[in-house]
Amino acid sequence: MDVAAERIERLHDHARAAAANGADDRARYYVRLARRVAERNRLTLPREFRRFTCDRCDAYLRPGKNARVRLRDGHVVITCDCGAHARYPYEE
Fold first, then answer.
1. Tell me, what's the pLDDT at 13?
2. pLDDT > 70: percent of the chain
3. Is 90 exceeded by the pLDDT of residue 92?
4. pTM of the full structure
5. How many Å apart are CA 61 and CA 65, to the nearest integer?
6. Shortest CA distance to 48 belongs to which of 29, 66, 33, 34?
7. Whose CB has fewer CB within 10 Å in the chain, the N or C terminal residue?
């Protein structure tokens, strides 16, 4: 694992911890920084990171706190407080 991937993982951990402590602005900062590191190094973000961040407002999503999770026919719909929707397939 190279330096950029390790930094992205560490920023993901920091964003999760900040969101758990209620520091949403700090978590948003970590998410933006991780996206910038990935973009500059041409890396894809890990799946868990992509699933738990909002593409529109860069918030770290916590189901029940700032995100709503609904199961539909063959996919999961995650709605952020900003109104953005993300859909991910799943198999029953």
1. 97
2. 99
3. no
4. 0.91
5. 8
6. 34
7. C
Q: What DSSP letter does each residue of the chain carry, written as one string?
A: --HHHHHHHHHHHHHHHHHHTT-HHHHHHHHHHHHHHHHHTT-PPPHHHHHTB-TTT-PBP-BTTTEEEEEETTEEEEEETTS-EEEEE---
Q: What is the pLDDT of residue 80?
A: 97
Lookup result for tokens 């109104």: 83
Tokens of 71: 């199961």
Q: Are residues 46 and 34 in contact, defined by beta-carbon separation less than 8 angstroms?
A: no
Q: Report the candidate in 6, 43, 65 with the shortest Cα–Cα distance to residue 54.
A: 65
Q: Amino acid letter at 59?
A: A
State whether residue 76 is helix, strand or coil. strand
Distance CA 22, CA 50 (A): 20
Query: How far from the centroid of its chain's Cα atoms is residue 81's Cα?
Result: 14
Pairing of strands 67-72, 85-89: unpaired
